[in-house]
Amino acid sequence: MLKNSVSFAFKRFSARVLIISLFFLTPFVSVGGKPLLRLDINNIAIYAAGRKFSPADLFPALLLIFSAIFLFIYITRVFGRVWCGWFCPQTILLESLLKSKSKNRTVKLFVNITGAFVVSAAMVFGIILYIIPLSELIMLLSEGKLHNVWYIVFITAFINTLMIGRLFCKTVCPYSMLQSIMFDKNTLRIGVYPDRADRCIKCNACVKACPTGIDIRDGLSYKCVSCASCVDVCKQSMGSRGEKKIIGYFFGETKFRPLSVDKAGLLAAALTFILGAFAFMAKTG
What we know:
Blueprint: H1 2-5, H2 8-25, E1 30-31, E2 34-35, E3 37-40, E4 45-48, E5 51-53, H3 58-79, H4 82-87, H5 89-95, H6 105-129, H7 134-143, H8 148-164, H9 166-171, H10 174-182, E6 188-192, H11 205-209, H12 229-239, E7 247-251, H13 261-284
Antiparallel strand pairs: 1-2, 3-4, 4-5, 6-7
């Protein structure tokens, strides 16, 4: 009963809080006196898991890169665009904004601009912490010596947050374009349950709730970010009539098909091997 009562919106909010917390706390975590994760531009090195990687450490760096690539492919192959709707920085950025419900255009504009400014500034500040220690960053800010590139990054983030938003997801996001070649017949997706399609009452609540403005009833679209906003409103709309929701998550094109063991399993095995090799080298290095 409790499981069914928790909306996907609340689950996404919980995931967002966790990710934001990790994002801002990680720069302050050290392993053996060294940063858990930091990019040292001055010495052209990267700190990962408490170990320093310089250009001479090419093989471990490649292992780490390939691990990230395999992990991304594996997540997409099995879970589709769950990354987009739940963990993507663009989604977290946009869903962290203050949203004004005021009918006054001036108030609404002020709230939107203020929200975009605060969220963009916080994001850029967090990114800088992965490159410049907090004490050094405070000194640079107080002396007005922070590099101009960071102001450009902030302006870009601000414009993206305030004016571009989901348009990026629908048009130029490379991940959304690549999903079509990484999906297979068993990939997790959002859609209309085939055996409940005839129960649709055409309230269009799913279309109104969709952040990218698609109609999930028309079938899978590369614009879908798998945020499940349509699932929540469908459940609410159909539930008020004593009916089950007609939209939901499921594996495969029809009903619930098992995961593709041959593809997903091999990717998982490769990822496990690479991560294991990286962990071993980090421990013995």
